[in-house]
Amino acid sequence: xxxxxxxxxxxxxxxxxxxxxxxxxxxxxxxxxxxxxxxxxxxxxxxxxxxxxxxxxxxxxxxxxxxxxxxxxxxxxxxxxxxxxxxxxxxxxxxxxxxxxxxxxxxxxxxxxxxxxxxxxxxxxxxxxxxxxxxxxxxxxxxxxxxxxxxxxxxxxxxxxxxxxxxxxxxxxxxxxxxxxxxxxxxxxxxxxxxxxxxxxxxxxxxxxxxxxxxxxxxxxxxxxxxxxxxxxxxxxxxxxxxxxxxxxxxxxxxxxxxxxxxxxxxxxxxxxxxxxxxxxxxxxxxxxxxxxxxxxxxxxxxxxxxxxxxxxxxxxxxxxxxxxxxxxxxxxxxxxxxxxxxxxxxxxxxxx
Length: 353
Known about the structure:
By secondary structure, the chain is mainly α.
């Protein structure tokens, strides 16, 4: 998952520009425009990455959308997202396996895994994950309210002397950057254990429901907007459900109709628009759900509470729209092993249908 705008260096210029503006060395409008410009020159000094991340993470607060404070926050989030991508590009840090207490038989925790994820680790240590989730949820609720969105944009354009394209760019940057941070955070069970899970399920259902009602052929799965990146959140939730409050996760998943909404998204977009890594992650999450013992005992209730035949048929179509393309590309049969619970469940469901 990449954020549009080219290479992602890690500098301090966004915050420096904010300081210059507040000190009167640069007018506020100019500073804000630079903070929104992904092509503006930035210095990339090595520095102490942990110290830098901690400062950026501690600056995260819930501000009204498109206010000056929110625009400054967007700059911080963009830098954190760059650090996340830099860390992912350096996967397999040789120093990490030497951490004291590391279990060589496992992939490790967020603190001693083979890949250093400084920004995500700091986000957890500073207890900011649920705040970030709340910020994203409130942002998307605002984004889906066309009247409130238009009014807020108009006020911001006047207050900050911004063109509409700049304001829209700020919104896109906020959603992409925060979305990437949450994606990597939710990949770790220890993060989910400290997260507001009811809010996470509510958010995923909100986004998928909007996609189901309003997004048809214009879905762009190549950018990290919530329309697609939320699928990673759902997959992580299903993957780690048994390490959380499993019965509560399944109950809220059922009550929010999260599974039918996910199935609808897959059927409409997977074949033509899901990149391979997204398709595999979604299928892996569904396989974990199908391997969940509690789901097995009450799976019929997830189909509109009464084994609705239309929803069952829709689920069975996943074999063609999601599973088959992955298995066809599976040369070493490793994917087949991972997806076995899903393929077995589809066979079982077909017999009952």
